Sequence to fold (523 residues):
Amino acid sequence: MGLVWEGIKQACWLLFTGDAEVLGITLFSLQVSGTATALSLVVGIPLGILLAMKRFPGRSFAVSLINTGMGLPPVVVGLFVTIFLWRSGPLGFMELLYTPTAMIIAQVVIAFPIVAGLTMAAFQSLNPNLRLQLLGIGASTPQLLWLLCKEARLPLLAAIMAGFGGVISEVGASMMVGGNIRGQTRVLTTATVLETGKGNFEIAIALGLILLLLTFAVNLLLTHIQQREQIRWPKPS
Amino acid sequence: MQKKFSFPTLLAAMALVLTVPSYLPAGEAASRNVILSTTTSTQDSGLLDVLVPLFEKKNSGYSVKTVSVGTGQALELAAKGEADVALVHAPSLEKKYVADGKLLNRRLVMYNDFIILGPANDPAKIKSTKSSAEAMKRIAASASRFVSRGDNSGTHNLEKSLWKSAAIQPKGEWYIESGQGMGATLGIANDRGAYTISDRATYLAFRKRVTLAILLEGDRPLLNIYSVMEVNPANGPRINTAGGKAFADFMVAPETQAVIKSFGVEKFGQPLFIPVAGMREEQVGE
Fold:
């Protein structure tokens, strides 16, 4: 337990002295996973809405794919993205392997099924009469979608949190496609692996704690947005 | 009630995140990136954290991307043309790749040594021998637990060559394959009270955490020789031949060799690697 205590002290020290490298790694992790989450919303939310509201042949197959995708092992995603980005691979000409862009691509692949799956569930749990009602009062399709999104905002924010949580915490894909290059592609999770490998357990624990703190801060913000709209029960008069 | 809901604010925040990264375009010109495939020991010892910035300073324009994996994988990546230069430590394996023409211009860079570690009470009684092959025989004969890396790394290759020279096929309850890096493997061996083989640099980094004792050292087959090799441009598309050669030349340059010689002295009281550029393999460790 002494080791954990040392780690906590180290984490405080690194944070309060504003260690440039640790700060850089922390901001970089936030940037990569934030971008990946944002992109996965762009893909995942429309896909989830489509799967929830349209009936088409092969839909249940697509839903099963998305549900499986919600549990994609990051290391498998990493392997496939790596093979695609190899110089000898189909996208090799882009020279993307071992760059932040490659990490974002892998993280989007991990996060978008999570976002799509939870969006689909959110829309399916809406009262079907609401849609009819809105159409009945003459809502256009964009208006309809916007209002339904608003109605489903609580589970949608949960989808964002789940997507972000999935990518900020993964290590397998970031390690493989990013290469854990100092000053270029090192994020909190890969740095933790490296320091563990070096035998610097205090620093590894400190980095782990900083990662938890970062995830907590982001979720606190999103939860705040989510919960401020809680139903207010009328006060008894 | 709906007014307060801040989905738009959230979307705006997301848009901000999206526009902030200036790194998104693949930007860097292809020829500037040098991909170095190397072993975990060079990375975990911290040596590359010193040498790579030095190289980039001396050869402005190059940006080194270090991929640190097991030696087996590092050589395979180079042979597939997914790297430009390889810095590894498995001489017999390296010679195969050179003979096949996949890797070129193998040059020795530095060496240290492997050590055989085990529980202090030494159940297999290997401390009394000076021969690593004999030690392996005794470990197998007494079925004392032994933790192997089992990952085709340089260390694993050395271990395999020791079993071969002892004419033993390690198999059984006592033979544990960790499939992990050296640090994790030391932890498992320590936990199980088992024998294992480690490079000296990693052992020194973990010395405080393990109670395993050095039971055999100094036998010639335990030499751990690192070489640098350039990648044959015929191995694949887009290989940065000039960049790979520049890094290989850098590794054997006198100034770099001097840096290697003093690396680790401050932290461990002894150098982690001994530079040997220009020597032949037989001369190493004489």
Notes: Chain A has eleven helices and no strands. The longest helix of chain A spans residues 20-53. Chain A has a mean pLDDT of 91.
